[in-house]
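Translate structure to sequence.
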């Protein structure tokens, strides 16, 4: 039985998550899905120009795991660009570090896994949560909503 996949640390989430080739209709177009941690691997290696060891350290994975992630990302991007596929950025197994949320019921503070747990406390399940705005990126990314009263 294989070990469960460990969540990868992600420091960035793009505003735009869907790209289509210019002049092509979205109907009947193939779609390539790039996982959030794959985008993060490319960002660290290709934009921040970090070496593999530093990238792996920042994502809190082994160097081999980082290499597997970036290989997968680059292959997907090459296929999408050469075949004219749409590119969707979503999913994956990651832990975001750009925003922290606080539950008003149990007091739990937690990092979000994007939309999956943005407005739901992972400890008590309450919808009475709000962004604590501790991270700089959070200020422009999070759109604070009033706590939902579904208790």
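Result:
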């Amino acid at each position: 039985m294989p070990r469960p996949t460990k969540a990868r640390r992600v420091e960035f989430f793009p505003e735009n998550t869907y790209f289509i080739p210019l002049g092509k209709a979205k109907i009947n177009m193939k779609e390539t899905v790039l996982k959030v941690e794959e985008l993060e691997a490319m960002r660290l290696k290709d934009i921040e120009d970090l070496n593999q060891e530093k990238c792996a350290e920042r994502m809190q994975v082994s160097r081999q795991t980082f290499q597997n992630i970036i290989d997968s990302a680059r292959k997907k991007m090459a296929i999408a660009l050469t075949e004219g596929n749409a590119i969707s950025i979503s999913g994956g197994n990651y832990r975001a570090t750009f925003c922290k949320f606080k539950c008003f019921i149990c007091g739990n503070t937690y990092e979000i896994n994007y939309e999956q747990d943005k407005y739901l406390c992972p400890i008590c399940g309450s919808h009475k949560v709000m962004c604590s705005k501790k991270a700089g990126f959070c200020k422009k990314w999070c759109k604070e909503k009033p706590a939902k009263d579904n208790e």
